[in-house]
Design a protein that fits this description.
Layout: E1 2-6, E2 13-14, H1 17-25, H2 39-43, H3 49-57, E3 66-67, H4 71-81, E4 82-88, H5 100-113, E5 122-124, E6 133-138, E7 148-153, H6 164-169, E8 172-174, H7 182-192
Parallel strand pairs: 1-4, 1-6, 4-5, 6-7, 7-8
Antiparallel strand pairs: 2-3
Helix pairs in contact: 4-7
The structure holds magnesium ion.
Length: 195
């Protein structure tokens, strides 16, 4: 079976991070209002960042995570024909000491919502380029730099401006341009085109 490295945030789900930003600021931002990856840096004033870090540290961001359309169903289908490894970062660089709970909250989310995946194959790291696999699915181009045959950029609010030329240069294909249909595109690439 071919091996897939599969990202979690912005690929399987949006964590409750945006809701935390909105609750903290009293705003109604939607994810597509942003073009930068770090929505807290974009939205929260610099002099309130420390206060926000403390605010967010007390929340389980995966308790009410928003699962992307068709994610679970498609991953379940992929799991029958591919060997899936979750590969996801859990360290918030703005709160390294408090990041331990992210490992637990993300793990609990995965074993609950995707019980068909093997937890022995969960890799929690930001050093994603260290791993070899046949396929990798991630929403950040910088994570798609390893020795991977098929690199798939999952569409997201922060990667809309990456040009086709840039992707081509990096040997990356894009699963469409709309995160709401991203899993539909992944299915087309990995199941319908499978030989
Ligand atoms: Mg991600």
């Amino acid at each position: 079976m071919k091996k897939i490295l599969l990202d979690v945030d912005e690929v399987i789900c949006f964590s409750g991070f945006l809701e935390a930003v909105n609750d903290f600021l009293g705003t109604n931002y939607e994810i597509d209002d942003f073009t930068e990856y770090y929505i807290d840096v974009a939205a929260v004033p610099e002099n309130r960042m420390e206060e926000f870090a403390e605010f967010v540290n007390n929340r389980n961001l995966y308790k009410d995570a928003n699962i992307l359309p068709d994610a679970i169903e498609t991953i379940e289908k992929l799991n029958k024909v591919y060997d899936i490894y979750i590969c996801s970062s859990c360290v918030n660089s703005l709160d390294v000491i408090g990041s331990g709970r992210i490992f637990k909250d993300k793990y609990d989310f995965l074993v609950t919502k995707l019980p068909f995946l093997d937890p022995q194959k969960f890799i929690f790291t930001n050093t994603k380029n260290l791993f070899k696999a046949d396929i990798q699915i991630d929403d950040r181009l910088s994570n798609l730099g390893g020795e991977i045959e098929t690199k798939i950029l999952f569409p997201s609010y922060h990667n809309r401006e990456i040009t086709d030329d840039e992707l081509k240069k990096n040997g990356v294909i894009r699963a469409g341009n709309n995160w709401k249909k991203g899993w539909h595109e992944v299915e087309k690439i990995l199941i319908k085109n499978k030989k």
